[in-house]
Amino acid sequence: MKNPTYPKLAQLMAKHGMTKTDISDIIEVSYRNTLNKMNRKARLSIVEAAKITQRFKDLGETVSVNVVEDGVLREIKRSIMIEDIFLT
C-alpha cells in the first residue's frame, strides 16, 4: 500500500469513515482536483485546509493547519489551534 501524502489526514479520514469524495465535497472542488491536491500535484489552499480542519473539529477532533511558505513553516492561528495534520 502506498504511503499517503498527508498521513495524519488519512488517519482522521479512516477514523471517521471519510472518503476522498467527502473531502472533495468539503473543499468544493472536483474529485480529480482533490486527488491532485492530496497527491501534491496541485496546491491545497489555506481556505481548503481550513474547511477540512473545521469539518474534523466539528467531529470532535483537535486539529489545525501548518503552512510551508518559502520553505519556512508558518503557523496559521486565526480560529484554529496549531497541530500538524497535513504535513509530515
Keywords:
88 residues, 434 Repressor (Amino-terminal Domain), mainly alpha, 4 helices
Brief synopsis:
The chain is 43% helix and 9% strand. By secondary structure, the chain is mainly α. The chain has one domain (7-75): 434 Repressor (Amino-terminal Domain), CATH 1.10.260.
What's the layout of helices and strands?
Elements: H1 7-15, H2 20-27, H3 31-38, H4 46-58, E1 66-69, E2 72-75
Antiparallel strand pairs: 1-2
Helix content: 40-55%
Overall structural class, as computed from helix and strand content, comes to mainly alpha
Instruction: Assign the CATH architecture.
Output: Orthogonal Bundle
Q: Over the alpha carbons, how many angstroms does the gyration radius reach? A: 12 Å
Structure description:
The protein has a two-stranded antiparallel sheet. The two termini are 18 Å apart. The chain has helices at residues 7-15, 20-27, 31-38, 46-58; strands spanning 66-69, 72-75. Mean pLDDT is 77; it is low at 76-84. Helix 2 crosses helix 3. It has one domain (7-75): Orthogonal Bundle (434 Repressor (Amino-terminal Domain)), CATH 1.10.260. Helices cover 43% and strands 9% of the residues.
